[in-house]
Amino acid sequence: MWKIFSQYWKILIFEGVKNTIYLSLIALFFGTIIGAFLAFGRMSKFKPLSWAVGAVVEVVRGTPMLLQLYIGVFGIPMVVPKEVRPDFLNDYFVMVAIVLVINSAAYVSEIIRSGIQAVDKGQTEAARSLGLSGFTTMTQIVLPQAVKNILPALGNEFITVIKETSLASTFAVGELMTKYDEIKSVNYNAFPAYIVIGIIYFVLTYSLSKIMAFVERKMKHD
Amino acid sequence: MIEIKNIFKNFGKLKVLSGVSTEIKKGEVVAIIGASGSGKSTLLRCMNLLEAPTFGEVWMEGRLLTPVDPYLHEEVIEASNTYKKLIGEGLERDAAIAKIREEDLLNEKFSIAEGKEYKGKIKKIYKENSIDINLARRKMGMVFQQFNLFNNMTVKDNITLAPIKTGMYKGMGKEARAAAEAKAMELLERIGLADKADVYPSTLSGGQKQRIAIVRALAMNPDVILFDEPTSALDPEMIGEVLDLMKQLAGEGMTMVIVTHEMGFAREVADRVLFVDEGIIAEEGAPAEVFGNPKHPRLKEFLSKVL
Fold it and tell me: What global pTM score does this model have?
């Protein structure tokens, strides 16, 4: 096991971990931003928008990630004719990243929505009864309280995303799990490689969950 | 001060209010009593439009808060195609208006069907009288059963948020904040809670929360304060401190509308008592009259249960 790590650590850390973190960060960063928009879209009083966003979110959450990756990486480029196909559609890494972003946006949007809706309605009513606008109420009262509901679930989602990037190894885009395949195929010894990869994933997710716990503690004052 | 005209409120099929009209005069203390589910809280919440009435109008100091209810304006009815049709059929003016009102004949959903003149009249009334609801609410404080202090803010910030955000105090950001904070501290001194200015609401007792909720409303210098069962969520030993503060306000001439189960308090402090039953004001009058000589059978029954 140690032999494997000492032999391949450069590849594992500098390529595998780097690409895993890279994909995760892209998915989380854009997923959270798009997810926030989706959340407000779904809560919109304009029914067609709310319905459309709801449909997209439910479909994304209700189908397997691996299937979505297949559709993104193989399916979509297939239906776009070669003459008009932009380059990025042929780039596995980009397509995997896009699918990860959409997938995590769907989950994050539900986390944000339920976090906002979990804030007691009385808080909004009190703010509105004082003559504050809907916008001020949202930014001063509801969102600061919603963040506390959202953070723990968002932390879990972050961890899930890190682990789900392993599915991207199906398309050999160079993240940690792909490296596992590469190592296994040169030394024919699967088991130690399992353990090494597992430890690396665990270190990533465990340190992330510690960071999240720290942030949560910082925000707790009531 | 506040005038409500023929308010109806439906939640889906459930009819909560079925035609309530009353006027709250300046300096008046009005108690609203009634059984649970009678619609008394909904009536109060319609006054500042936390619930939008299904039909009817709410006015505050001559300004319209709700959309125009065509049935309440004869000139609007007269402009409608339905009215013109009835006149064409030979009805008298008054009979036609009465018939339209009784049978809800105006086509409100597709108001274009009632003609341009009708729509124009509604627009004109709205334009001349309506006021932005946020502006109206600044002069209409509200105190809730569950206190609803902002959990993410200190006591002082709870009180100063609305005065600062609504630009109540003139001057640059810092000056306005200082003025708002001075006012907040003055109000906290008054209720003896100045030492709680920098704590979060979760550390306070129910009675303290409710008194702070009341001064939060006072910080906006409201013309009227609506109280929605202000003592119902309190432990018995804390009810007194909240009622005492409300009595003080009443003594200072504050206009107050109070939904309450505290009959003794209503009797002592109110100028007028409204008994709400099945979505209408079943009986109203001076407290001595309502409590001492109830006429409506439902009111008699209600009082025999609660007194």
Answer: 0.82
